[in-house]
Sequence to fold (378 residues):
Amino acid sequence: MDQPLDPKNPSKGTFKHYMYVSHASYDKPTVLITDGYASYNRTSELSKVLKGNQIIVEYRMYGKSRPNPLPWEYLTNDNAIEDYHTIVSKMKAIYKGKWLSSGISKGGETTLIYRSKYPKDVDVAVPYVAPVIDGLEDQRTNDLINSVGTDECRSAIRKYQRAILKNKAAVLTVMKNHATAKSMKFTKVPHEEALEYAILEFPFSFWQWGGKCEDIPAENASAKELFDYVNSIVGVSFYSDATFEYYLPSFYQHIKELGYYGFDLEPVKDLLNVVKNSTNKRFAPSNVDLTHNPKYIQKVRKYIENKGDKILYIYGAYDPWGACAPTPKSNVDALMMVLDGGHHGTRIKDFSKEDQEKIYAKLQEWLGEETTLYPIVK
Fold:
């Protein structure tokens, strides 16, 4: 679809906005997936529950929907919300049944922002593991990282971080060989800086993706074992030139309006050589205004906590992003489900039978008895 770069001023031009429309039946509900990044076609969990129509929308200025050069001033959450409003308004002429919106992580946060701006566009919102972040370095993520699991596991994480940095020269050699084998370039973020950032990122990613404490290498592990594990949890490719370029729009948005998380340098600061002071601006575009507006997401949070009805929240208790979850007031008709020991990959299918029945009952209440909900096949 041709979308205006600036919804308030269509004369500024358009961009090609890509989406995947999967048709089931004109009578079935329709699920709008608000992806936070580039999109690919798949069947979402919610679409399986409803066996309905599905529209996956790529976030503006990402993936195939990214103009070259990218006009940064038009990459705003409000402009993205206008994209969804336009799409839903048009598609409702075809799909006249119930509508739901859903997204995961940044996409889930987008679902919440959309809900706050156009609360009547869809009947129900289902954000998965969606943060509503407080500031450029939300301290709540580190508070969770320093409290979940056992003392022994958190100690093992710190010892592992230090072991890599104490053996940095050998680990860097392994990393460079790996980069060569995978044709990865590190000119934007040089190898040593990338490795130090990966070490700082490690605790967040470990808990985010359900790392197992027993898998953490011992302090006397080989350089290859030390590297392979951080690579499996964090993925050093994140700092490669290609991925750096891919995530530029994301870091731009996080710094301008969404906020992000910061790193805890304390356990390893005496061993850091390059990253003396970490900053997320390191991964944002240069020569662009990066002034942070904290009021934007605060307004969103205020709305969904006080007026955000018919929202089903799905979180994992060990996911650092879950520390940034909103807290709906008791009078708000919302359901917050947090899976004990769950991580960023937590879905409805992961909950107990009793909890799934609770989720289904609430969805049925919101969507009406005429809507059929189907069991999730794991």
